[in-house]
From TrEMBL, chain A:
PANTHER family: BRANCHED-CHAIN AMINO ACID TRANSPORT SYSTEM PERMEASE PROTEIN LIVH, HIGH-AFFINITY BRANCHED-CHAIN AMINO ACID TRANSPORT SYSTEM PERMEASE PROTEIN LIVH. This is High-affinity branched-chain amino acid ABC transporter permease LivH. InterPro entries: ABC_transp_permease, BCAA_transport_permease. It comes from Marinobacter xiaoshiensis. The chain crosses the membrane at residues 20-38, 45-64, 70-90, 102-121, 154-174, 203-226. The gene is livH.
Length: 307, 423
């Protein structure tokens, strides 16, 4: 019973982190699916989302607002607004001019952008990590003979529910809306889509905006869950989310969700049963193994090399 | 069209406000447990508004502005002239390189100790950049974990000197060979991946090695690092005031001159210089050898190169191994120069800086890479008051380079023949 509870605790923790990873991974996978580049600065967009949310929460509290759901929703909207503007601007400034050039050029441009954004926040907000107030406290506790307690906090429940809402909304948007249909068309064949009258530039911008908005949601959730933010907060999370996207099959949206969950669970199992220090090693190791043995990921389509 | 332009410009200006105001204009401060929000200086707000206005004006007059920019007389004196003949160009380049080396040989005796120390660091970066140039510039393999091999070289020397008391000169080949071997072992499975996947996997490897160094406390000392790494000796002569190891003599006593701390710094600089020159010469040879041609062929068109019978794995692996080898070389010198190493020195940013040097210099061009290494290391030192902005400018420069001049400052020019279209 003890072991089972311990196991379920790790599972819950893993699914919590994993669903947030999935939110970030969507941004990587959508951009890759459409223009075939790794948006290296996506982790920084997520970090900026977390910072904006914290700024909004602090500001609203200072203004005397006390009703928690309102604070959270306003903070979330602010974070999404700032992050998606950033995502749009980054694409405009750093990626659009180099689109269609040799593969490495957009990637190097993205690395430069990532360094730039990290230092932008670093200079404006300082390099120290800042505590994120735990606004949602408490939770359910389950115990067996009172020895080991398994807990499911309200924060974790919030993360699950928010992720679920975002994912459902995204799926509906992609499958039902006009823009969503255009997105799918562009990701299948960008040249053909533009011949059929789709403004591909607009769709690519839309992809960056959607990805950035979801990353901002993850930024708020994970910032609150971990309890602090710092300018380097986005780098590792971005790398993990990228791993999740590759794991599920880059370019595939359900793949990114699945990949995020698997990565989150495997990470928390490592820290639960082996050692917390090596959890990053496990996730990068997983990434390398997947790329070596099944580069298309779990749900991805094989890429045909045309001569 | 005009109204459309106006709307777009307004939109851009608003986005500028949105992305700059919350982050720049409101700063978070932790006071004990509480976090407070404070406004920035008025000048910051003025700057934000000015930036938005600038974006607005630029977007409105974008077409006129870009048109005017195109009509500007080209300021580059070389533009419009026929590209220099290949043989002449190569000759000029080798004369320039020789000139730099001769200058570098005499230079340390004229300047202060601090600048010589900095110059040693520049030389280490030159070695690293020349090595990475083989991987990225010549073979076209984007390696984002290059710093891992640098770490292997540095840690090999540090650990060997700690456990076996090995000297610098013994450690130099061992460190480089081990780094090369690591490159080969890591490269073997990953090199069949395509460009950007390869980049991420190498990044992952780099992080794994750093995490291992950080957590394997019993061997590497973890975040505390390893200290007491010996300095190089000159035929058994040490450069310290007192001789540390038995059987060695000290430099100043042998030559009967007064002890000076500068001797050691200059000696280290000269070693780094010699090693950097060796690195440059060896890689220059490689570039002219069939394997060097194969690297470039594979970079330009993998399918064509393979159908001409080049083995993809062998060619890529050789580039990867040679690159790693020179990183190990540089790592050993670095460990010896610092006397202390810790995982802090081998973070991803370091890989990004070396990559930026290669990109800035013009991928594949040795002279360009050397000049870029000098610029990237020295410019931040010259503009100390801007040192906070160093990385910010650095990132922006990387983006701007890719947008405006992806071939780098001094690109390699090749003899090219293009077929004219017959009318």
């Amino acid at each position: 019973m003890q072991d089972l509870l311990y196991f379920s605790q790790q599972l819950i923790n893993g699914l919590t982190i994993g669903s947030a990873y999935a939110l970030i991974a969507i941004g990587y996978t959508m951009v890759y699916g459409i223009i075939g580049m790794i948006n290296f600065a996506h982790g920084e967009i997520y970090m900026i989302g977390a910072y904006t949310a914290l700024i909004a929460i602090t500001g609203l509290t200072a203004l005397g607002l006390a009703w928690l759901p309102l604070i959270l929703i306003v903070a979330l909207l602010c974070a999404m607004l700032v992050s998606s503007s950033m995502g749009w601007a980054v694409e405009r400034v750093a990626y659009r001019p180099v689109r269609g050039r040799h593969r490495l050029i957009p990637l190097i441009s993205a690395i430069g952008m990532s360094i730039f954004l990290q230092n932008y926040v670093h200079l404006a907000q300082g390099s120290r990590n800042i505590g994120f107030p735990a606004l949602i406290e408490g939770g359910f506790n389950f115990s067996a003979d009172g020895a080991f307690e398994m807990s499911l906090s309200y924060m974790q429940i919030t993360i699950f529910i928010t992720t679920l809402i975002c994912m459902t909304a995204l799926s509906l948007f992609i499958s039902r809306s006009r823009t969503g249909r255009a997105c799918r068309a562009v990701s299948q064949d960008i040249g053909m889509a533009s011949l059929l009258g789709i403004d591909t530039n607009r769709i690519i911008s839309a992809t960056f905006i959607i990805g950035a908005a979801l990353a901002a949601v993850a930024g708020l959730l994970l910032g609150m869950y971990y309890g602090s933010v710092d300018p380097l907060f986005g780098f590792i999370a971005g790398l993990k989310a990228f791993t999740a996207a590759v794991l599920g099959g880059i370019g595939s949206i359900p793949g990114a969700m699945l990949g995020g969950l698997i990565l989150g669970v495997s990470e928390s199992m490592t820290s639960g049963y082996l050692s917390g220090e090596y959890k990053d090693v496990v996730s990068f190791g997983l990434l390398i193994l997947i790329l070596l043995f099944k580069p298309t990921g779990l749900l991805g389509k094989p890429e045909v090399e045309k001569i | 069209m005009a109204a459309n332009n106006m709307r777009h410009a307004l939109f851009c200006a608003i986005v500028t406000l949105i992305i700059s105001f919350p982050i720049l204009g409101l700063s978070l401060e932790a006071k004990g447990v509480n976090i407070t929000l404070s406004g920035a200086k008025t000048s910051t707000y003025v700057a934000i508004v000015l930036a938005a206005v600038a974006v607005f004006v630029f977007q409105i007059f974008r077409d006129t502005f870009m048109g005017a920019l195109g009509k500007l007389p080209n300021l580059n004196p070389l533009a419009g002239r026929e590209p220099m003949e290949q043989t002449k160009r190569v000759k000029l380049e080798s004369w320039l390189l020789t000139g730099i080396v001769v200058f570098a040989l005499f230079w340390p005796f004229l300047v202060s100790r601090g600048s010589v120390d900095l110059a040693t660091l520049v030389l280490i970066y030159i070695m690293l950049a020349l090595g990475l140039n083989v991987v990225v510039g010549l073979a076209g393999l984007l390696d984002l974990g290059y710093v891992a091999f640098y770490a292997v070289g540095a840690y090999t020397f540090a650990l060997l000197s700690q456990y076996t008391g090995i000297s610098f000169w013994m450690a130099l080949p061992i460190g480089a060979l081990l780094a090369g071997l690591t490159g080969m072992i890591l490269g073997f499975p990953v090199l069949r991946l395509r460009g950007d996947y390869l980049a991420i996997v190498t990044l992952g490897f780099g992080e794994i090695i750093r995490i291992l160094l950080n957590n394997w406390t019993t061997l590497t000392g973890g975040p505390n690092g390893i200290g007491g790494i010996p300095e190089p000796t000159l035929f058994g002569m040490e450069f310290g005031r007192r001789v540390k190891e038995e059987g060695n003599t000290s430099f100043h006593e042998t030559f009967g001159i007064a002890y000076s701390g500068e001797h050691k710094v200059i000696f280290l600089y000269l070693i780094a210089l010699v090693l950097a020159v060796i690195t440059a010469l060896i890689i220059r040879r490689f570039m002219r050898m069939p394997v060097g041609r194969a690297w470039e062929a594979l970079r330009e068109d993998e399918i064509a190169a393979r159908s001409l019978g080049l083995s993809r794995t062998a060619v890529k692996l050789s580039a990867f191994t040679i690159g790693a080898f020179f990183a190990g070389f540089a790592g050993t010198v670095f460990a010896s120069k610092q006397g202390f190493i810790s995982p802090e020195s081998f973070v991803f940013l370091e890989s990004a800086i070396i990559l930026a040097i290669v990109v800035l210099g013009g991928m594949g061009s040795q002279l360009g890479v050397i000049l870029a290494a000098i610029a990237v290391t020295i410019l931040p030192e010259l503009a100390r008051e801007f040192s906070e902005y160093r990385m910010l400018i650095f990132g922006a420069a990387m983006v701007l380079m890719m947008v405006w001049r992806p071939q780098g400052l001094l690109p390699v020019r090749r003899i090219q023949i293009t077929l004219n279209k017959q009318g």
